[in-house]
Amino acid sequence: MKKLVRIATDHPRAVILIILILTVVFGFFATRVTMTTDLKEFFPQDDHRVITYEQVEVDFGAAEYIMLALEAEDLFHPATIRSIDLITRDLEEIEGVATVRSLTSVDEIKGTEWGLEISPLVSELPTTPEAGEDLREKVLADELYSGAIVSKDTKVGLIIIEVQPDADSVALAGLITQRIKDYSIPERLYLTGTPVLNNLLASSMQKDLKKLFPVVLFIIALILFLHFRDFKGVALPFATVFISLIWTLGLMGLLGKKLSPLNAVMPIILVSLGNAYGIYLLNRFGEELSRGKKRREAVVSALIAVGPAIIMAGATTVAGFASNLFSDITLMRDFGLFTSFGVAIAFAVSLTFIPAVLSLFPARPPAHAKKTREGKTLQLLAGWINHKPRSIVVVSLLLLLTTALGLPRLRTDSNFFNFFPEDSQPKIAYNLVKEKFTGSESVEIVVEGDLQDPKLLTAMKGFQEELKATGIIGEPTSLVNILERTNQAMHEGNPDYKTVPDDEALIAQYLLLIEMSDDTYLSKFVTPDYRQARIQALVKDTSSSGTARLLAAIEELKEKHFPSDKVRVTETGIIVLIDALAEMIIKGQINGLIFAMIAVLLILLLLLRSWQGSILSVILIGFVTIINFGVMGWLGIPLDIVTVLISSIGVGVGIDYSIHIYSRYLEGKRKGLDVKEAITVAVTGTGKSIASNAVAVISGFIVLVFSTFPPFRYFGILVSLIMFFAAAGALLFIPAVTVWQASWQRSNKKIKLEV
């Protein structure tokens, strides 16, 4: 500590210059940071689920879709069909679009006197109401089209845009979103699908950060000014914050990392939390000045007094954020790494840059160092703690119990569609497609085996039928459906022949006829060697529970219909990745909390050198974590990719208040004060700093309630609650337990002496 003091105070200009130069360098790389909402970015590159998903794209083409729903009074009116055709043709020309499936672009299989023909379902656009009615009758009679590209009430048509595997689906969704705004048609258009949602998330987060970040800065600046009544009291903590933020973003840019829904709140986190170290240092600096010390002497005394507490607080905060490194989610590990780095820079700069600046410029005792109304309030609070410790502890435990009852209600949700309110355009579009066409997301099931074997094809048929019968999915599509239609077409459309042939030679013949008619028709559903086939179906319920039911049903039916070791069945798709993400969230949360608690306890034991203070601090933050999850359960706030970060913030940051209060208490004890006197000094000496910091942090995060992104709103509310309970616990619970324990020990000693 003394070496650090000498560096900061003996060479202030060098310290300031070095920090500013590094800030400029990191600032250059910070401009390279971009944003991503791609679901695959959440997974490690070697994750088998992502590899399987990408392999499906390689083998069968697009596995990611953008859904465009067109709503009209009558979908089969000639003018509406022309609108569908116009949109279909226009979208096909966009770079990154693989194919576009709609009423006017899908094909049908027909038998002819020469063999087999694959031709467009709509060869000529209807020009009369009668022709439209004929088409309506034809479409509604075929499950391949009815409920798949045309709603059964014929009010909504679905245009399915398949994304090329190597295309940027999020950017493509943004382009299509702008494109459809230029269509001058009377029909109503609704765009949905994961790429659309990811594009909206990215744009919403960027808008929110641009809008809310200045508000956060203003509020924290105002709070700092009201606290210090001095320009330095605002400028120096802010300088610390901005330096740490620029260095963090610069490191991200240098390493090629991106902002995501997980770490998009990182700037607000660093701004809200990073000023804390400066507040404690400046407060103590003001105290030392008010005692008549010279400028440099006051800086040295302040650093020696609060420097260890700042190091402890910084180390525990780093440990809290570092707990995210144990997550399997790549972007959560990035969040843990870069927030830890940002916090480490914040307290390092506070202990070097701020003292260096204070050593160079004249200073006077700040206004807040004088006796104020707040000081009298803290005196009363300390008195209450010393006289009513048991009451405070009992009330705290009752609060804990009440909130803990909400824990069984806590649920996970990794479905991005639930990030939007019901009356928002994304959710309206999602619900419309779900209601009319099963859903906007598909499950992909890959079957590996001899796909010219009638037995395997029959097993696939049974698997599809039973899976559809569960009510979880819509109409599945696969090689089986193509062969059934081919067999029917080759028998003059007789519905009795809509079956898979039981003759391997006949199956091979049908496959050859299909290839001769259209050599790309089979490519979406079977590989050229006929060793891998794809079963595709839209999913009705994409919630975490719905996906869990689907995957359980698939596992059960796999064992029933494909018992042979020669056949391998693998499920994938966006919803499988979403389900895996939910599982990773829970696992990462458990592992992270265990690590954080152990790491924080060890750090406190090493630096605080007090068993009682260390254990009390960890117990308090454990209570705060339980309260957080309990409140989430009571309010129905799910554990998702954003709210999952809150526990690490609670552990890492919330414990800072406990460190500062107990460090000041131990300082009083070392000076010979008794327990109650030391508690009074601790509460009155650090109480205002804790309160000011808590108000600044809470104010910074509560601004997020104005976000258009629901997880951000929940995040702001919950972090604010955590900070409130952590600060209140540090000012009330820890001192009360300390006083109560001391009173109990005295009573025991007295009893023993009397005996």
SSE arrangement:
Layout: H1 2-10, H2 12-30, H3 48-60, E1 65-71, H4 78-92, E2 97-101, E3 107-112, E4 115-120, H5 129-140, E5 156-163, H6 169-180, E6 188-192, H7 194-228, H8 231-255, H9 266-274, H10 276-290, H11 295-322, H12 330-350, H13 353-360, H14 373-387, H15 389-404, H16 425-437, E7 442-448, H17 454-469, H18 479-489, H19 504-517, E8 532-538, H20 544-561, E9 568-572, H21 574-607, H22 611-635, H23 646-670, H24 675-702, H25 710-754
Antiparallel strand pairs: 1-5, 1-6, 2-5, 3-4, 7-8, 7-9
Quick synopsis:
With 755 residues, the chain is of the alpha+beta class.
Q: Notable features of this structure?
A:
three-stranded antiparallel β-sheet, alpha+beta, four-stranded antiparallel β-sheet, 755 residues, Multidrug efflux transporter AcrB transmembrane fold
Can you characterise this structure?
Helix content is 64%, strand content 7%. It is built from 25 helices and nine strands. The protein has helices at 2-10, 12-30, 48-60, 78-92, 129-140, 169-180, 194-228, 231-255, 266-274, 276-290, 295-322, 330-350, 353-360, 373-387, 389-404, 425-437, 454-469, 479-489, 504-517, 544-561, 574-607, 611-635, 646-670, 675-702, 710-754, and strands at 65-71, 97-101, 107-112, 115-120, 156-163, 188-192, 442-448, 532-538, 568-572. The strands form three sheets. Strands 2-5-1-6 form a four-stranded antiparallel β-sheet, sandwiched between helices. Strands 8-7-9 form a three-stranded antiparallel β-sheet, sandwiched between helices. The protein has a two-stranded antiparallel ribbon with strand order 3-4. The longest helix has 45 residues, at 710-754. The two termini are 48 Å apart. The mean pLDDT is 86.
